[in-house]
Fold this protein.
Amino acid sequence: MIAADYIVVGAGASGISFADTIVSNSDFSVAIVDVNSAPGGSWRYAHDFMQLDLPIDCAGVNSVPVGIEPQTRPQTARMLTYYDEVITDRLLASDQVQYFSDCYHLGAGLVHAVGWNTRVRFDARRKIVDATQCWLRTPARETPSFASDPDVLMITPNDLSSVWSVAAGLHRKYCVLGAGNAAVDTVSQLLSLGVNPDQICWVKPRDSWFLNRESFTPRAWLNTLQAISETRETGRLLTNLEQAGHLVRIFRDQTPTMFHANVQSNAQLAPLREITHVVRKGRIQSLSSLGIILDDGVEPMPERTLYIDCTTSRVEARPRPAVFEDTAITIQKLQIASAEFSGALTAITELLDLSDGEKNRLCTPLSLPDTAADFARVYMENLRNKATWLTQPGLHEWLAQNRLGSAGKFLSSILSDPANRGFADRQIQHLMCAAANILDQDVKRNSLPSFSVISEPSRPHLRTVTEPD
């Protein structure tokens, strides 16, 4: 039997961030159990040109910066190296952490260790932590939802580099299927490889709103709250946020109907506007040698077309249990677009001298957004979470020292001048309350369904205001 205070299942962003926060703020021990052969979670299955979504100073674990220039965006190889370093140089070196790779958690602390070909009982003296619910899906690990003829050449983004190395320039057309971050990365990569924009076809069932990476600053966050609180005209919320710099879209002549809380920037999206062959005929039914069969028609394609499947949604509907339940913790998204911050906040909340009910009040999981209309609901939940955190003294001080969350950055600037603290606290609370009221009105206008009841199972191996002058 292997014993530790916390058994963390999953060595991705949220699990490692949870462990780092426990080690930084307590003497408790942690055993990390992961199905993969090395840490990094979803990064281990990402295409090699995938870039970090978040600004670099919001990424990774709180105690160890990713360590590159602020304006750069590390790709897959750098992020995998980073998580290897965090496990080895930070967590294992603390003598509070044990790390077990190639291990499947079967439930209730029972682990199948592949390397040992045996089952091992793990004893969690305090709690078992499920750190797999923030998992991001990748096209390389998913089966397409549509059929394709045998003579159709279709790959995932993970295969693009190897195909290009042996067949650069041999294809008449490059057809990118999908509208999310993987598709954005792939189109960007094709352009960087020198593919002419006229050779690229982009099949987009829906256009998407993206969170603007440049808005992850204290000042931009205040501007966002101001823009929301001043919205009075029905239907103007998202366009007002675009004008305020919080949201971006690729094609400005298209009104997006999708919002998955993905992060991009205008600089990243600008070259993509050169693509003129954009297909908007609904979802793909099948691919044939003649072209693409879609809900609303057929799109002919030439011979020697290379299809790149980016249709897999990065997130999937999962149950949303309470984060804290007796001897279990289920890490879930508590802030938009940040599994790292959510893992850290869950850990610091666990260490507070509060009941599970009080902890759950501080850690309310966000809904899963899909359509543009869902923005108001998930952002309202996001604001209400932040407002709740600011009322808890133990979290207030921690947020001010935490580099991962936007609220923390603002609070750190407040605490640098104690004379302004009370004024700034009142201002930010006022803006957040006004913005939440506007968002609540937008939710009611759209009559959105509740996302609280979701039947899809969990991961299979877990069965069981203005700043003062």
Summary: The longest helix spans residues 421-446. Confidence is low (pLDDT under 50) at residues 448-469. The radius of gyration is 23 Å. The chain is about 35% helix and 20% strand.
